[in-house]
Amino acid sequence: MSDRPERPPFRSAGRPFAAKGGARPFPPKRKGGPGRPPAWEGENDVALLYGWHTVSEALANPARRFRKILATENAANRLQEEGFPLPVAPEIVRPSEIDKLLGSDAVHQGLLAEAEHLPSPPLKKVAKSDLVLVLDQITDPHNVGAIVRSAAAFAVGAIVTTARHSPVATGVLAKSASGGLEHVPFCLVTNLARALEELKASGMLVVGLDSEGPADLEDTAMRPPMALVLGAEGKGLRQLTRETCDVLARIDLPGAIKSLNVSNAAALSLGIARRALKRAG
C-alpha cells in the first residue's frame, strides 16, 4: 500500500478561465493587505502560470496556492505519473481551449494554472542572503523572467525591485523564468535607494553594474554578503542608484560587440560574482 497522499480526481472543464464574453476570468481587484506587497494594488489578484516547467515547479512549491488548473489529457496524465501534488482537481480541456485564453503563440504544453502571487519577503530577511540581485526599473517581462531563471541557477537569495515600474510576476515573465519564481522570491520596495542603504547598513556590499564603471567586474573586490545592481537596458542605473552603490563595475567584452542584453549581462555577472564569493569564502 502506497504512503502517497490521495490525489484529487481529474474532471472535465465546466467554465474554466472564462474567455471573452463569458464569466470573469479573474477575481475582483483588491488593495494590498498583510502579506500582500504593494505591486499588486490595483492589479488582478492572480498569477497566470503556463508551460510544463513553470506549472510543475509551482506545484512542487508548498507555498504556492492554486485556484484552478487547466490541463490537456496528456499533460494531466504526465502530472499524475510523475507524482506531482495536485491541490485542486485539474479541468481537462483541449489544447485549443488554452490557445484561446493565451493566444496561439504561447507555448503552454497543455498546462495553464491560476494561482495566488507569492508573498514579498521583508528586506531584513533578504539581507541575510549571501548574494542578492537588485533590478533598477527593468520593465520588460521577457528580460525579467530570463533574469529570474539565471538567479535561480546561481542560488540568488532574492530579487529586490521597486513595486512600481516593474512587471508583475505572471504570464510571460513566469514562463520566461521557467519555474525560477518558485526559488527566488521578489522583495518589492517603495524606494530603491533607501532599500540599498538598508542593505548596506546590514553589512552588504552593493556593487552596481555600469558601462562607465572604473574597473572590470572580474577585477573588482567582492565578498559576501553582496547585492549586485542592474539597470534598465539603454538607460542603465539611475543617478541616485548609482550614487548609493559602494562600487561600480563594468563588463569588458573582447569581441566586436561591446554590450549585452540585460538578461545576458545578469547571467554573466552572477557567474563572476559567484566565483568571487567562493574565493572570498
UniProtKB/TrEMBL annotation:
Residues 1-40 are annotated as: Disordered. InterPro entries: Alpha/beta_knot_MTases, Ribosomal_eL30-like_sf, rRNA_MeTrfase_TrmH, SpoU_MeTrfase, SpoU_subst-bd, tRNA_m1G_MTases_N. Pfam families: SpoU_methylase, SpoU_sub_bind. GO terms for molecular function: RNA binding; RNA methyltransferase activity. The keyword Transferase applies. It comes from the Bacteria. GO terms for cellular component: cytosol. One of its GO terms (biological process) is methylation. Residues 48-121 form the RNA 2-O ribose methyltransferase substrate binding domain. PANTHER family: 23S RRNA (GUANOSINE-2'-O-)-METHYLTRANSFERASE RLMB. This is RNA methyltransferase. The lineage of its organism: Bacteria, Pseudomonadati, Pseudomonadota, Alphaproteobacteria, Hyphomicrobiales.
